[in-house]
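User: tokens in, sequence out, please.
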């Protein structure tokens, strides 16, 4: 059983929070490797229900391993790529973790922050190149329309073929 999700009944609550506080919650959740709503739920549970476990702590990182590999993506991003069944599922999992994939004008798929939409790193640098994901999901990245002769980043027009002109009598 997940300790962050008690067996008791739940009720959806919405809060008006300052943008800076929402950003701080997102950063803390990102550092802890959990979703923002799980972080808020566990923090409120800790404060008001006296849970001894407290909010999740950020995972300890091995500095030497980071230097060898470069920037290590958060566990939630790695998990999203591993468990996703398709493009929509991948985007949903990434958004829950505070990220999203965007296809640039240059045709390069990159990881961006969500909702601020700042480019972070190319998906290929994460070990998830666009070509591999396209083969794995058996579909092009959503919104990516390629026609013969068009460049990957260019917007291609969809044209319907003209029907053949036939001579004869109309019915």
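Assistant: Sequence out:
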């Amino acid at each position: 059983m997940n300790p962050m999700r008690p067996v008791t009944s739940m009720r959806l609550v919405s809060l008006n929070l300052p943008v800076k506080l929402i950003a701080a919650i997102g950063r803390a959740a990102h550092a802890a490797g959990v979703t923002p709503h799980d972080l808020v739920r566990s923090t409120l549970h800790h404060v008001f229900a006296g849970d001894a476990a407290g909010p999740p702590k950020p995972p300890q990182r091995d500095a030497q391993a980071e230097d060898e590999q470069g920037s290590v993506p958060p566990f939630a991003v790695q998990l999203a790529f591993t468990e996703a069944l398709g493009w929509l599922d991948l985007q949903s999992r990434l958004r829950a973790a505070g990220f999203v994939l965007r296809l640039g004008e240059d045709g390069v798929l990159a990881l961006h922050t969500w909702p601020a939409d700042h480019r972070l790193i190319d998906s290929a640098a994460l070990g998830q190149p666009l070509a591999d994901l396209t083969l794995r999901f058996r579909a092009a990245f959503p919104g990516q329309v390629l026609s013969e002769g068009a460049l990957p980043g260019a917007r291609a027009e969809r044209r319907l073929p003209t029907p053949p002109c036939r001579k004869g009598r109309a019915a």
